[in-house]
Amino acid sequence: MLLQIHNAARYIVCVPYVEQHGRPKPKDPWSFRRYAVYQHYSQSTRTSSWILIQPREETRQCLETGKISLGSRSLWASFYTHLRIIKSSSRSWRWFLNYLSDELDQIRVKVICQTDPTKSQGSDEICFMQSQTLEIIQAKARRASSAIAATTMIIQTIDQHLDRLSSMQKRFEPMSGSNDGRDFLHDELQQFSNHLTIHARKARDIIEETASINMLIQRTLDLRNALTLHTSNTSLRAISASAAIESTSMLHLTALSLHDARIMKIASIIALMYLPAGLVSSIFSTELVSLTPVRLDLWKGVVVFFMLLGILTTATVCVAVLWIKRDRKAGVVNKAVAAAPSKRQQGSGENCSAA
User: What domains, with CATH codes, occur in the chain?
Assistant: First the structure.
């Protein structure tokens, strides 16, 4: 920015650039920096006062060795000094963009190429961290593009001021034929602007390539998630089918168990019916009963046998039936007692709600 005040001119410029920081951390060796230059040019004394804020180390060395001179006697010559300073700080754009391009190529190879030659699908090394790395590369490329655009604007501003000085000189000194190297400075500015345009185009290409690779990664991750969900659903269906088959088998086993229980119940009832007969037989087999006349005593013994058999069988069956009925009544009473607290709780809840 150029400010003209009476016989003085002030030129203020702030140039962003990149430079290797030389530290072991972070892993990225490049860092974005900026410096500022303030120049006050006095038309009466034809001298300039310079203030450089955070200049590059290379710029300091050039100033100390005299490669860049600040003792310009004219305003347009000071523009050449500005150009030298800006060019010295803009040399790293090429290497920085090459660094971003190499990082992008490494990710592209991992995403597109398959390490296993037997597989025809995409790479297995795709992960979300690569997408994050691409976002970082894209952010750096955008920042570089903005910085290069700002530097290009500064160069264009210097060129415009140089043209303005040339027109003013032609107006006030029409007979002056020499331009004191202004055409050379104009060519230098144009050439440097073309270099910056090339760097800006490369930065835009990196941004576009990063976006395309990031889209490919996102689609690959979405496809992988869909395949995982499909596999999970297939596994769940298989598990559900196995559970259904197992439930059917359990029902079949339960039916068989009920059938066996029914058979055992019938066998138990039959055995229960024969228990009194066995008891009577054991009584008649003892010495308590004596049969002297075979015919009469045998008949009496058979009558007594069947009489006792009927009485004991009837008593056994009656006791069993009464016992079963008692168990059923006890089960019903227990269910009623267990259900009573829940009914009382429901009734209290209804009373509370009514209140």
Answer: 1-89 (no CATH), 91-263 (1.20.58)
